[in-house]
Every structure is written in structure tokens, then in C-alpha cells.
Amino acid sequence: xxxxxxxxxxxxxxxxxxxxxxxxxxxxxxxxxxxxxxxxxxxxxxxxxxxxxxxxxxxxxxxxxxxxxxxxxxxxxxxxxxxxxxxxxxxxxxxxxxxx
Length: 100
What we know:
Elements: E1 2-8, H1 14-25, E2 36-43, E3 52-60, E4 63-71, H2 74-98
Parallel strand pairs: 1-2
Antiparallel strand pairs: 2-3, 3-4
Helix pairs in contact: 1-2
């Protein structure tokens, strides 16, 4: 799967990009028709400690899924986003297989 990582208002290091790629590659276990993923990493300008936002958009044939999570670290936000996407993809796979 092709994963594009976009950092808004900061530069992203290779380690974080590798983590995002590795974590999103695991989604193909749940639904093998995922075409691509766009990950937007943002730092919100708030006084909260939880100011890291990860927005993950994945493209599957006929649909797009968008999940947005805000946490203390980008790793945690990506982790929570991918867990939500896992559930969405499993639901979609079950829905499609029930129609066949």
C-alpha cells in the first residue's frame, strides 16, 4: 500500500515516517483491497499536552475512510487511528462478503 505522510508546520523525521508506514501496512491483513493512505500530522497551537493530531485517510475501491485522533504523541495518535481503521475495514469486509 502506498502511504503518503504530510507534516503540517513541522518537519517529520524518518523514524516517524517508518513507524506510520509499518503500522498502516498491518491494515492490509484486515482488508486486502486498500489502495493508498494519506496521513496528515499536525501540531495544534493549544496549551493542552495533547496537541498532536493524526488524520489518516485511506482509499478503498468505492469508498474513503477518514479517522482523526488527538494525543500526546504522534505515535499514540497513529496507533489509535489505525485501530479505528481496523474496525472499519473489518466491518466493510463483512458487509461485502455478506452480499456475495
